[in-house]
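Protein modeling request. Please complete all fields; requests missing the sequence field cannot be processed.
Requester role: graduate student
Desired output: 3D structure, token encoding
Chains: 1
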Amino acid sequence: MTKDKIQNNSTENSPFGEARGTLDINAYLDQDEKKDLLRLLTAGSVDDGKSTLIGRLLFDSKKIYEDQLSALERDSKRVGHAGEEIDYALLLDGLKAEREQGITIDVAYRYFSTNRRKFIIADTPGHTQYTRNMVTGASTANLAIILIDATKGVITQTRRHTFLVSLLGIKHVVLAVNKMDLVNYDQKVFNDICTDYKAFITQLDVPDLNFIPLSALKGENVVEPTTLMPWYHGKSMLEFLESVHISSDRNFDDMRFPVQYVLRPDLDFRGFSARVASGIIRKGEEIMVLPSRKKSKIKEIITYDGNLDEAFPPQSVTITLEDEIDISRGDMIVYPDNLPRIERHFEAMLVWMDEKPMDPDAQLFIKHANNTTRVRFDKIQYKIDVNSLQKSSVAHFELNEIGRVVLTTNKAIFFDPYKKNRSTGSFILINPMTNNTVAVGMIIDKLNAEDLPSRIVDEKTLEANKLRIHKGESLISETMLQKRYNQKGATIWITGLHGSGKNELAFTLEKELFDAGATVVLLDGSSIRSGLSNELHFSPADRAEHLRRVAHISKILNDQGIITICSFISPDENIRNQVAQIIGEDKFMLIYMDATLEFCKQNKPDLYEKYENDLIENLPGADMLYQVPKNATLVFQPENRTLNTKIILEYLADHKIFPIV
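Delivered output (661 residues):
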């Protein structure tokens, strides 16, 4: 049982002026349901008291269960960092590393409510290396509490957190000057900090700024107004949070309904389900569907609790239309006289969130609203130092770095600038190989055609490219190909007698590599002789010409980043060395199938019977010399096909030709 439930037994604490025994629980729940929700985050440097402030809010507003309180008192003595006081930060710092170090590492969410409002609090970490964690917590917040240690004043991390809050479009900021007890609740200290902070924040876009002095550890000005700072005439933290006006923060002007799901339970019903991103949807209004630009009127607005005449954010509804229109997930329903941007090119602020550095040449997926398509980086405008706000030119972003970029999508998306509409102005970037979210972005606006950057811009690069084209050299570098295919071009040349198991190994290896995601081509004697070498016979001279052609095909494929598997007898050691020189010895891997002649005869009896009956000649190992390779990369016995394939795959991974996961 919570402490507020114990105290609410009395008549005066009942919201309806009735004894608890006669409390109309349905009316109470109905009233609770109608409370609005405030999402807020706390940010600040290490030891500024973020977790302590939230813990104190929960404690003093009597939202802690008795068993939680007992555990808190016990843990404060065992692992607390508040001396003899109760360490309220332990209510938020749940990770073992957080408790050991007394810091916040990951985002911790807490829910509580008062008689006036519901709250979801995100306690975000202060360290620079956890910037992405803070961005995650701030992405849905209406308000930010930025804590400052009164003994330290405005520091670098204060400016960094303020910049991030401004970047993410949070309109309400509270500067909580904490630990006022350590400066004897001095008004001058508080005023000086406020002056310094105002001088910095004027550079940023924060429309609503408030200052509150407090002591989270002592509970001064957290829930109840302080008596130790008579010079302060404002509200306590909880009073401010209960009364701050956020209902006008949402965009109710631009109706955006990004379709998430097409609801078709039977042949007689077709509805389109989604959360209203912005604006107000009204029954009977004419709408337009993007990208088709087909028009209709809203027939019904359906919810679990019944039909509505209008819906607004953040409601999730299903709508039906008066006309049959082809609409799919990712389409957007809007009003015809109020369209979003419909563009492929735009500028955005990007927060890089992946451990792996950004690859500007990589193609990623962009998930915007309920739409997903491919996207590429056209230009990195600059990186911004979140501590000093200085801009600098960079070739890529590292983890937690922030900057301005130009992006181009494969198909047009429907967006608004982030400052105008957070729901349709934000996106995430996804690595298609790992499916990890690598970045989050806030769209600044579209780019006109004349402002679009070119990927080939300077004269020096143009001249170099002209020279490469004149020489017949590709403009796609080997590095670019390796990034695209996630492999290096190489040739796996398998040699051995007829019937030695060359083809069995080659075809098995091709399937294994294909299943693992490799781009691979298999060349064997039968396929090449049926076409490219159709006119050649089996004399030593014709065999040499046959293998020369195969070598050049392999080189072309390797130069395009493709792995080639070649299965050819190639009996002459000198010819094999020439093949390696044509392909490139660094890309050439020779595998010898060491099979006895008896094994080969049993494996291909028809072929050897023809030889014995004088129907064919120039058969290596019989009437023609087969020279055993002296420098084979790997030597295999044909009986161990599965093991042989595994060894080749491990070799390719060890030599960074193709990674085997």
